[in-house]
Amino acid sequence: MTLHPEVLADLLEAESAVARQRLRDRLSSLSVDGACVVAVFSAHGRNWRLCLDGTYYDALPLALSVIDDNGCPQPREGWPPGLAYEQVPDHPVLHRPWACLRGTLEYHMYPGHSADAWEFSRGDLRIADMLDHLLQKCGQ
Amino acid sequence: MTSLSTGTDRHADTITVTVFAPNNAHHEFTVEATERVDKLARTAVDFFVDSGQMQPADCGLALVSDGVATPLDDASRLDEDGVRTGAKLKLLVKKPKTDGSGGNP
After folding, report:
1. Considering only CB atoms, which chain A residues are within 8 Å of B55?
2. Is residue B100 one of the residues assigned to a domain?
3. Cα(B78)–Cα(B37) distance, integer angstroms
4. How much is the ipTM here?
């Protein structure tokens, strides 16, 4: 069962407010667009946009993608260096690029993480922590 | 309601889907299109447990298509949730089953 959209919107906004405060020196902007949290930051000489999609939260975790200015998911070549999981570049279930980060849909759907089910950590969402780790992977 | 009197009628009401275990082992299941999501999940778990691919667990299902996973409501019928022949469904562990002799207080 997913959260009621209004509850989800409030949750994402509250989490984003914490992340804006904590990561203000490393993010260019952080906004909530519908069920998505979009973080913009600079690294490796250009701007990047990360999208954490909570459309099916919290039945499923937030789904991570790198998007362009139009919101279109990018192939792995369009991801910031260091972010995509290079050892298994094509996610074996979702068949798209992914980052190995607990709390994301891609992590919890990865067969090697089957013992670390989303159900065990669904009450622990902290978007600021997730973005902190993602930015570190990007060298930010 | 479709008659169950002939094999042809029954065949028209069945779908064949691929269910993926948590470890990504997979198996095709042919089921009634009107079957409830939770029934297919339990059938698949029983199969994968019997074949040593997973431990017993309460599981839900997500429909995976074009890189997007959509959770299915346990109480929904498969056809109501848009599950058709050829669909790929992923088992999602909700909680592991225990035998009751463990240490949980």
Report:
1. none
2. no
3. 6
4. 0.81
